[in-house]
Amino acid sequence: MTAQIIDGKALASELRDAVTAATRRLVAAHGLHPGLAVVLLGDDPASRTYVASKSRALVEVGMRPFDFKLPAATSEAELRALIKKLNSDPAVNGILVQLPLPPQINTSRIIASIDPDKDVDGFHPLNAGRLASGLPGLVPCTPIACLRLIRTVHDSLAGIAALMIGRSHIVGNPLAQVLLNENATVTVAHTFTRHLPELCRRAELMCVAIGCAEFIRGDWIKPGATVIDVGINRVAVGGKSRIVGDVKFSEAVEVAGAITPVPGGVGPMTIVCLLINTLRAACMQAGLPPPAL
Ligand code: GUN
Fold first, then answer.
1. 3-state DSSP of 75-90
2. N or C: which end of the chain has fewer CB within 10 A?
3. Helix or strand or coil: residue 202?
């Protein structure tokens, strides 16, 4: 049996149209033009690519991007000064500081210095705490993207045996919380987990975010399971470079019930979820109800 391919690109395109319409309505009805500040330090090629696609997507849906490209040697004090300015700028509804940051900068202190109401990444301790407490707040984009993809296959996650592989603050940790809030029975696996293949074989839903090319093999997957592959890994094949996920797709597609491809799965959805968070932040700050998206 071949798995259903969960088409993140198509779903993202549909949602982007809805975000464009909602943005237009906000501008027309309230003169509110959502703006997102994207801050990049240094010139890491992957980060530059991500930041460029975020800014492009913002313009496409009619939002305002404010791009800040700073040298890799920027000090923490200089970055803090910029964030302070952005926190108090009413034209800026969201602030995204692209990670990872250079080693002279304390990432936790920077995240904590962002106004939680403008924290469209959902990384601020207040928003992380709200998510862990089941309270409304800004939720990290990739976990929300994964949930939206999962919902195309499962009406309810109540009681489902979900395995989250990876526990990063960007994806694994918040995605485990998101699944828990959906009443899934969640196991979190990480570097120190023993007997991972056996654990995988029990999972009805598997989400993988470890940044390790094609690590999860087909015979680790429970037949019929849903597989969400968050990995974006560049590998060299026959002198050419190619993007692959954390799951060996050619094997997994023969066993799983449904699977996200890489590219074209979680990636495009993550960017749309950033746009939705920006829209939500703008509405929240203006005292308007959140958009029904
Ligand atoms: N680096 C990799 N993923 C992300 C993300 O979702 N947000 C930010 N700010 N940096 C990242």
1. CHHHHHHHHHHHHCCC
2. N
3. coil
Ligand 1 atom at shortest distance from the alpha carbon of 100? 1
| Ligand 1 within 6 A of CB of 121 | yes
Other beta carbons within 10 Å of 291? 17
Active site residues: 54, 98, 121
Please tell me the distance between residue 169's alpha carbon and the centre of ligand 1 in angstroms.
10
DSSP letter, residue 215: -
Taking the C-alpha atoms of residue 22 and residue 15, their distance in angstroms, rounded to an integer, is 10
Q: Would you give per-residue pLDDT tens digits along the chain (293 residues)?
A: 799 999 999 999 999 999 999 999 999 999 999 999 999 999 999 999 999 999 999 999 999 999 999 999 999 999 999 999 999 999 999 999 999 999 999 999 999 999 999 999 999 999 999 999 999 999 999 999 999 999 999 999 999 999 999 999 999 999 999 999 999 999 999 999 999 999 999 999 999 999 999 999 999 999 999 999 999 999 998 899 999 999 999 999 999 999 999 999 999 999 999 999 999 999 999 999 999 99
Ligand 1 proximity of 97 Cβ (cutoff 6 Å): yes
Counting atoms of ligand 1 from 1, which one is nearest the CA of 121?
7
User: Which amino acid is present at 61?
Assistant: V
Element (H, E) at 5: strand 4-5
CATH architecture of the domain with residue range 31-117: 3-Layer(aba) Sandwich (3.40)
Find out whether the beta carbon of 283 lies less than 6 Å from any atom of ligand 1. no
pTM greater than the 0.90 cutoff: yes
> Is CATH 3.40.50.720 the right assignment for the domain spanning 141-268?
yes
